[in-house]
Each structure stands twice: as C-alpha cells, then as structure tokens.
Amino acid sequence: MIGAHLKKTYAMTDHGVKNVMMGTLTTTITNLVIMAGMSLVYLLMQGFIAHLTQGESLPAPTQFLIALVVFALALFVAQLFAYTYTYGVVYEESGAQRIHLAERLRKLPLSFFGHRDLADLTETIMGDVAIMEHAYSHVLGQLFGALIASAVVAVGLAFYNFELMVAALWSIPIALGILFGLRKLLAPAQNRARAMKVAAAEEIQETIDCIREIRATNQGARYMKALSQTIDTSEREGFALEVISGIVVTSAMIILRLSLPTTILVALSLIAEGKIDFMVLFGFLLVVSRIYAPFDQCLMLITELFASRSSAARMLAIQEEPLAGGALSFTPQNHDVCFEHVSFSYGETGSGIADSQMLERSTQLEPAGASVAAAGQQVLKDISFTAKEGEVTALVGPSGSGKSTCARLAARFWDPEDGRVLVGGVDIAQVDPEVLLGHYAVVFQDVVLFDDTVMGNIRLGRRDATDEEVRAAAAAANCDEFVERLPEGYDTFIGENGSKLSGGERQRISIARALLKDAPIVLLDEATASLDVESETKVQEALSCLLANKTVIVIAHRMRTVADADHVVVLDGGRVLEEGSPCELRAQGGLFARMVELQRESATWTL
Ligand SMILES: Nc1ncnc2c1ncn2[C@@H]1O[C@H](COP(=O)(O)OP(=O)(O)OP(=O)(O)O)[C@@H](O)[C@H]1O
C-alpha cells in the first residue's frame, strides 16, 4: 500500500520504491544507533556520578573502549547503507525516469505535442526529475527514517517518564503538521516560479533560433527588453518562493526547538516534586539534543518534497498519456495508399501518432502562410483518393487546403476521425506506427540534419547500411560532387542542422537518406521549391532514382512538378475538388487549370 502511494505520489518506479524503503530502514537504524551511542554517554555519566556520590568504582576503561569501538563500527556500517540507499542509488532512479519519459515521448501521438510546448517538456524531463532526485536523496528516506526512529525512541522514553516524553517530543508532530498544513500555500508559488522559468527558457530558445531574423529586422533591442523582463519576473517569482518557503520552514524549526525548554521546565518541576532525579533530566536532554538533528536537515529541504509532488504530477501526466498501438506484423497486398472518406481535425480529441525518426520532420510540415484552422475545426472533409503503386500522385491546392495534413495521415502521424487510410488493403490505424513507417521514405522541403558527419546523416535512412551502400546512395543523390570538396569528405561534420551546407546540398543528403532506406512508399514535400536552377536539376535527377516504381505522394507547390505526375488530386478547403491526369484537369478548366495558368503568367514576370 505504501509502495503504491509512493509510486503514485512521487512517480517512482518499483525499483525506486524499494530503494526508498531500504533508505528509510537504514536511516532508521542509523538514527537508533546514534541514540544507542547517547545511552553510552548516559551510562558513563551515571557511573561517574555514582563514583562521586556513592564511592562506587569507576567503569572499566576497556569496557567503555570496546563499547565505543562497537558503536563506531555499527554507525559506520549503518551510515554506509543509509548513504547507499539514499544518495547513492538515486541516480539510477532519476536516470530510469528520464529514459522512461523520453521513451514515452518518442511514442506519444503528435496530438500531445500540439498542446505541450518543448521548453515545458524539457523542463519536466530535466528540471522536474532533478527535483525528484533531490527529494529522494535528501528528504524522503531521511524524513521517514527520522519519524520511525523518534516513534521508537518515544516508546522507550515513555517507559522512563510519560510526561517528560511528551515534553520532549510534542513539537515534532506540531512542526510537521504546520509544514504539511501550509503546503498548499507553497504550491501556487512553486508553480508560478516554474512557469516563469519555462517562459524564460522558451524566450531564450526562440531568441537563439531566430537570431538571424531578429538581426535582419532590427528587433534585437525589443527582443532583449522582452527577454530581460521575463527573466526579471522569473527572478522575482523565485525570490517570492524562497521568502514564503523561508517563513514556513523557519516557523517549523523554531517550534521544533521549543521542545528543549519545555523538557527542562517539565523536568525541573518533576525534580522539585521528587519524581525524577537529575540523571533522568540529563538522559532526556541527551535524547532531545539528538532527536532533532535528522529533522533539521529534512526541514531545510522539505519544500523540495512538496515541489516534487507537482513535478511527479507532470511526469505522471506524460507516463499516463495513451500511446498509439497497433499490430507488429504488416503484410499489405501491395503499396497502394487509399484514402476512404477521411475526415480530420486537429482538435484536442484528434489522435496523432508520433514516431522517433519523423518527429522533427513532421514539425516542418507546418504551413508557413496557411490559414490557421480553429481548434476542432475539420481540415479534411470526406477525402477519398488512391495513390497507386508505381505512380506519382500529386496533391495540389491553395495554401491551407490540407495537402500536408493528407501526407501526415498517409504515414499515420495522426489518425483520421472518420474514414480510413489503407495501404495495400490494410487499415493503417491497426498497424504499429514504427512498423508502418518502415515502409515509408519521407523527404520534406525543410530538411532536418544532425550535427554529425555526412556519412552519419545519410546512414539515418538505414542504420545497418555499410559504408559502400551509404556512398552508393549518396552518389545516386548527386552528393558526390559537393562531398568531395568537403575537408574530410564523408567524414566531415556538417554543423547543427547542416549549417555548413547549402540548401540544395542539404536536400540531396536527405534524398540520399531516403534512397538508402529504399522504402516502397515515398512522401515528398516538393523538395526543389527554394533552389536555384542548377541545384534544382541535380536534386531532380536524384529524385528520379528515388521515385522509380514506388508509390509516390508529392505535395506539389509548382505546376511544373505536377506536369510529370500520373495522377493529380486537387484539394480546396479540405475537400477533393478535382482529380485526374494533368491533361484531363487542364482540359476541365477548373481550379487546377487556373493555377497552371497563374503560374505560367508569373513565370514571365520580370523585375
Ligand atoms: N498542427 C496543427 N494544428 C492545428 N491546425 C493545423 C495544424 N497543422 C495545420 N493546421 C491547419 O490545417 C489546415 C490545413 O493545413 P495543411 O498544412 O494541411 O495545408 P497545406 O495545404 O499543406 O498548406 P501549405 O500549402 O501552405 O503548406 C490549415 O487551416 C492549418 O491552419
């Protein structure tokens, strides 16, 4: 029962619960060993006074020394175990939690990322876990250990004198009661301080991400002002939290210390009444002086234990978020991708599917100038079309018409609200996202590259590919020509997101990656849109290798690309408006024909 409570309240693993229990046990034993040491001092003092007052012989020094050595050894062993089970193993727990959270995030639906921002999630994985780490190592075991040890000591003291026991220990439940009672006062301040910390982190991240745009638009001063305001507010919230924590903790500590004068007062009155002698007072004072030490340490950090409950709640929210499931075996009859009456909205209820490889890329499907659909508004309405194996199917339409959304649904980044997406007759909503994505290669306009070598970046397409296979894919994607110019060829590090390469070179690397994967279905966000003529020709050559005999769905922005497509699906307002071959559609004289005409006219514009 205690284990279940700890798991729920502090988001612990089974192993972590076991460690906290062991930490509590070993800390209790340590505290009791220290108390036993106090009784040694008491016995020595008692013998000494008996010698002075009754002329009894002094305790033998060898007996005392042996007792001292036994005490020191027992304390060493107890503290070693207590240290191991509190400070020592805590890193295993926090490491396990971070990995568990990261693993969970990897498999969560994209809808989850729609309503949580990255700085907040990073703060949960790093900051919240760090708070938990501190609470496990410095507070939880020690607090339970101190409580159990004081309960044991209370029972022992009650045998000596019940009134004195109450006078010595009354402050512990009162101090803890005040602390736990005022916990609710602290929670809003802790949440505000964390929210401001996340806001500051977000702004710093945005400033760094957008540094070029900020400089280009002369917005540096404005950004810095906003950033310093956020950081100031964050500091103020942090300070306010410290003040409130200080008041709460100091009050509890003062109350805790009141036990010493009350013990002396009660003891003196009992001595005056002749009920106890000075040795009992001495014994009680020894106990009182020791019993608060472990509480002192816990109280200094107890606000972290309170904060850790909110941290745990945020971690549990991620852990309890439902994952997208599906069958692990996927054997479609062919690789036709078929949309059957598909409707979809990006509401809270929409369920999206995340995938580790695709996560970064998918975020880049966000439309630059698309109209923003209101939450819950349908962005695809009763869409039906088939992208056949061996054909290029182009999705065409105005900005915001739903082209990228169709591509996302085709790869099960999200699941439709109504209707089905089938691959080779199999409903992909029933297939595990990672298994499904093994059948897809994706090339998007904004390529995501890692700060790795050219070789490492291409190999992401297929981790077990040999160097020769990587080089062959790179050659087919026309990468050779620029890789040869790099100082260390394929072993050159290309900087964060390939910052040392041009747009065309980055795109060719992403095509090489897709070629290496050699997946039967290719999703392509018209990759050549922002390139100069020479780069575009090279990328087009590379693409022709990639697309041969595959099911290709291309999000086409330019009519020139569409001319070579086998099939065109024209979307408008989330509906299929026209469908057919490019020739048929031009002959129809509808939206497609108008778009072709508009682009033809714009191609003749001169500056
Ligand atoms: N992650 C999202 N959350 C909420 N709404 C979204 C999201 N992504 C897109 N939308 C909305 O869905 C609608 C269709 O967007 P989509 O990106 O599919 O259009 P598109 O045709 O690909 O546009 P573009 O050609 O500009 O890239 C738009 O109204 C857009 O605002």
From TrEMBL:
Topology of this chain in the membrane: Multi-pass membrane protein
ABC transporter domain segment(s): 363-598
PROSITE patterns, per the entry: ABC_TM1F, ABC_TRANSPORTER_1, ABC_TRANSPORTER_2
Cellular localization per UniProt: Cell membrane
GO molecular function per UniProt: ATP binding
Membrane-traversing stretches: 20-44, 64-90, 139-160, 166-186, 239-258
This protein's UniProt keywords: ATP-binding, Membrane, Nucleotide-binding, Transmembrane, Transmembrane helix
InterPro entries, alphabetized: AAA+_ATPase (IPR003593), ABC1_TM_dom (IPR011527), ABC1_TM_sf (IPR036640), ABC_transporter-like_ATP-bd (IPR003439), ABC_transporter-like_CS (IPR017871), P-loop_NTPase (IPR027417), Type_1_exporter (IPR039421)
Record-annotated ABC transmembrane type-1 domain positions: 25-307
Name of the featured protein: ABC transporter ATP-binding protein/permease
Species this chain originates from: Collinsella ureilytica
